[in-house]
Amino acid sequence: MSPDQTQPASEGDVYVSPRYLAGLPGHADPSFAPVAHWPHHHLDAGPCQLVITSPDHRIRIGWFGDDYDTWVISAAEDPVSEPRWTARINQNTPPEIVQALTSALAAEWTEDSDTFLMSRSWDRTDTVKPLLDAGWERKPLRHGILEFVSPDGLAGAGINVVSTGKNAELVTLWAGPAGWGTRAEAIFTARTPKHLIAATAAALVDPTPVLRYKDSLHPRLAERAQLTPVEPPRPATPTPLDLKQAAAARRPAAAAPATRSVRRWTTSTPAPVAPAGARLGPRR
To answer: Which residue ranges are recorded for the region named Disordered (predicted)?
Structure first.
């Protein structure tokens, strides 16, 4: 798929593909766009800088900015209850992937809804169905982890099938080589609705490249990703009428024909004067 040409070129000088190797561009704007109309609470103290809540405060999106767990997203049955589920997403995760989760939450929330609280499926692999549909390989069960890996080996998902407890971290989506500045991770606790994890996984495999400034990319990500320079838009193809008018403008103007005053004889025109010395005809 070609890069999204609707993105402003001012937001980067290269398109990065696959998108899961793009990292965080220095801001998280895409992740907050779906909930821009929800209440924003800016915090002056503590590691959490911003909390965005649904209007009834059942959904909370925390932005920590400088910490490893950059986003902490949770949902509860009421504003004061313990979260039913939590997603912790680190500082190397592209915000375009987080946007898929916040978009799903924004679309599902109403004052009477609970679809963002409950799973409607018991099949663990429903959480990673988009990965399977994209051709990711399912690995054999190992140490209680069911793993799925991308064809390039640079992204994957793990499902913990042995841990118990409502707060157990059961599903992990990851991308990039291991390391503090390169490995992206999104970790979901046990009761996270499977369709919300699947929405996040679908963004992970979305083939649309994302814009980044090349110099801001971690070198280990840049050397593994495909980088395509942003090119200025080409001028519109001229129409046949444009070509005709341009040719006419270049053609030199034809020289005007020389004009000569021709004397016409009429009955009122006096006879020409004979030159001196001319012989006159005989008079009758």
So the answer is: 225-284
